[in-house]
Amino acid sequence: MATPVVSTDLQDSFTATSEQVENSPSKNITDASDFWINAYQDPVAGIKTSSSCMALEDLNGDGENKLIIADVGTTPFDMRLKVYKGTSLLANMQLINLPSGLCTFFVDTNEPMTPAIAVASGPYVYVYKNLRPYFKFTLPSLDINPTEAQYWKQAKEEKLELLSFREMLEELQATDTEIPLTSRSLKLLQCLPEELEVFFNMYKHSPLKRQTVITCIDTIKKTHNEEKAISCIVIGSEHREIFILDPEAFTALARVYLPSVPVLLYTTGVYEVDYKVYVSCRDGNIYLVKGGSKIAKICIQTGSHAVGIEKQGKNILVGAMDDSLSCYTSRGKKLWTIQLPSSITTMEAIEIKSKGIKGVILGLKSGEIRLYRDKLLVNKLMLPEFAIGMKFGRFGREDSTLVLITGSGKLSIKMLKRTANLETRIVGDTLKSITPGKLNLPKKTKLYTEQAIRERENSIPIFQTFHRDLELIKLYITREYAKAIGSRLAPISVTTENIKLSAQVQGLGPGFKLSVSVQNASNIAVTGLLITFIYNPTIYGMTINAIPIPFLVPSINYTYEATVECLSDTGVTEAIRVVITKDSVSIPLLTALITMPVSLGMLIV
Amino acid sequence: MAGLERSRSTRPGLLNRLATFLGIKKKEAQILFVGLDNSGKSTLINFLKPDSYKRQEVVPTIGYSVEQFTAGRISFTVFDMSGQGKSRPLWEHYYRDAHAVVFVLDSTDRLRMEVAREELNNLLLHADVSTRKVPILFLANKMDCKDALGPIQVSVDMCLHEINLHSWHICATNAVTGEGVEEGILWLTEQIKHRL
Ligand SMILES: Nc1nc2c(ncn2[C@@H]2O[C@H](COP(=O)(O)OP(=O)(O)OP(=O)(O)O)[C@@H](O)[C@H]2O)c(=O)[nH]1
Ligand SMILES: [Mg+2]
């Protein structure tokens, strides 16, 4: 029944007329650039926001998704929470603080099920239900620098002159970095001298507080993963902490410290089962906070700063400030990178369930909107100006709607055509600098590459260690050399009397014969030399302890002999030192150590 | 088949009158109801049905549903298509056999007027429609709602003046009370009578 049966009589009854040709079927082919229906545009919407401050959600449970925007406002102190139902503004509420993020979630299962809106703003999370304020969560305040508190106290008691008070604060700010100053003190430091008094009098009576601010917000399902299941709020704060809040009691279920300030969150999983929070931090790294773990582990080193994180299947897509879109495995290994022609202003995930399509949309500084499926560019769209905020999802009753906020505050709503083909890559899109995926490397090659990578990554410490060792060796050698020279241990003297000395031991013991040969290597004769033997008298005994050499003719080898008696019968040996001295000079010219052999004769007898 | 529904009626209703107008006997007239989801197609058909077959509550159609009425000796087959995005590709399979098309528009849904126009374009460009003359009745439904666009505005937004092959007509309706429906059905009757 679903397929039309060709019935000839019906065809006859609707015989085509000549006018039919007017709409030729060739028009049926959709233009690749023409994927989007321009549903609505408000050039004067005057909205200033970011993708993290936008949401699409069925707030009233009437099957129609609303657009929720936390608007920073085009003028100062004009922050607003705006809710669009279709093209009309359903709500426009004042916000007290600058919003940093927004999300929608279910706080309870009471019928009718309506989701709440959470707006992160300053140190607070404002929760709205049915478009009315419902709850306000405040981040716990931080410790105050005691010196700062004391200064304020003294100034209040008028023990301190205002100007010197300011100077002291300034000094404190410059010296003590352990606990930063409160925002009030910082504000006071910014005051002009004439404004100082007014400012001080306005705040002096209220207690001093140091508060952190929320930098990012997201949600995570609490007990089970269903579309309308209760969710916990996940927030990241300026003082490097991640909080997971209970949706009913609004107490912190988990707190995890990070090595840097979190700026972007991406959550998966269920809080009570297993969850993962990917946190992009200001140090350019993406950390992973896992369920049950109290510490954040480094997952991805982007080498830049992430503009957006999205998980696609098992991989993580990161749009970064170095104009690149990269794909990493969940272990942080980079699979590929695409270099973009312009910097990314905003990034948003797309999922079209009916077609089984997943991908990301990137808003570029050039005004281009690019749609990537994996690393394939499947659609490009050119806007007159760049997008600052972007949301893709169901709006009104239409799935696959793209809500765009551009730099000048324009709101534009585009809907993906049902006939849009997102299966093929755009012609002319070249895949630039794609690092190949996983190759099956032989073990040795792998070892080599790992080693090479390690050397590349740690080149500085490796060089430093090598250099240090080299210097140590040099130092050791120099020291030994200096010692040798200092005690004239070298076999050739280095003074003006150039004398060579060599000594030999002959015999098996207990009687030994020492023959010492001395040669004058210079061409002038040397006079008044004395050969002295230094030995341990408990082991050895000698008939002569010194041999005088009155005259040494150049280049003739003189040999002197002396007998040594080994007195010990235990077989111990000790070296005998031969020293050559000249007349009254106290430093020896040369020294030689004669290693004595074990007295064998004694053992034989 | 999912959503298939048949109801036979011998009671005189509005469609019965339509049959009398047509003056056709033992013939079948197929009317295709299309339009985006939530526009009020099922509510309209429910209104057209003889009283005893009226349903208390209209739920979103899944896939499509077929209503068959025997008015006098004429059988009417009305195809009520689901307007949901994923079901819209189904519509084109029913163009070939349709004697007339009723395109229902939610005149309060400004956001999706362009989507409706896109779907109308797809319909007009389809080979089974572009090669023959099919009367198209546009119903700017939900006229009772305070933020509803008027039929003139709807026809401008939908660029209806660009249709020159087919005869078309637009009128504002309230599918719940039936207000304005009669005018449209009368126009449709005239058109089909001409063509059959
Ligand atoms: N106020 C008002 N409500 C209407 C009118 N027509 C339909 N509705 C309501 O609109 C809703 C949707 O009507 P349906 O008839 O189910 O719409 P449909 O076009 O069949 O939708 P799908 O089957 O999903 O394609 C229902 O809640 C109707 O009560 C009308 O003229 N005025
Ligand atoms: Mg229906």
From TrEMBL, chain A:
**Any one GO BP annotation for this protein:** protein localization to cilium
Disordered as annotated region, ranges: 1-27
- GO terms assigned for molecular function: patched binding; smoothened binding
Q: Which InterPro entries match?
A: BBS1 (IPR028784), BBS1_N (IPR032728), GAE_BBS1 (IPR056419), Quinoprotein_ADH-like_sf (IPR011047)
Give the highest taxon in the source lineage.
Eukaryota
Q: Where is the Bardet-Biedl syndrome 1 protein GAE domain?
A: 499-599
Q: Bardet-Biedl syndrome 1 N-terminal domain: from which residue to which, for each copy?
A: 36-290
* One GO CC term, this protein: centrosome
UniProt xrefs under PANTHER family? BARDET-BIEDL SYNDROME 1 PROTEIN
Q: What is the name listed in the Swiss-Prot or TrEMBL entry for this protein? A: Bardet-Biedl syndrome 1 protein-like
Classification from the root reads:
Eukaryota, Metazoa, Porifera, Hexactinellida, Hexasterophora
UniProtKB/TrEMBL annotation, chain B:
In its UniProt record, which GO terms are filed under biological process?
A: cell projection organization
**Which is a Pfam family this sequence falls into?**
Arf
Q: How does it sit in the bilayer?
A: Peripheral membrane protein
- Keyword Ribonucleoprotein: yes or no? no
Q: Which InterPro entries match?
A: P-loop_NTPase, Small_GTP-bd, Small_GTPase_ARF, Small_GTPase_ARF/SAR
Residues binding GTP are: 35-42, 83, 141-144
Q: Name one GO molecular function term.
A: GTPase activity
Listed SMART domains = ARF, RAB, SAR
Q: Which PROSITE patterns match?
A: ARF, RAB
Q: Does the keyword 4Fe-4S apply?
A: no
Give the residues the record marks as binding Mg(2+): 42, 61
- Major site of localization recorded for this protein: membrane
Give start-end ranges for the coiled-coil region(s).
Answer: none
Subcellular location as annotated: Cell projection, Cilium membrane; Cytoplasm, Cytoskeleton, Cilium axoneme; Cytoplasm, Cytoskeleton, Cilium basal body
Q: Which family does it belong to?
A: Belongs to the small GTPase superfamily. Arf family.
Q: What is this protein called?
A: ADP-ribosylation factor-like protein 6
Q: Which organism is it from?
A: Oopsacas minuta
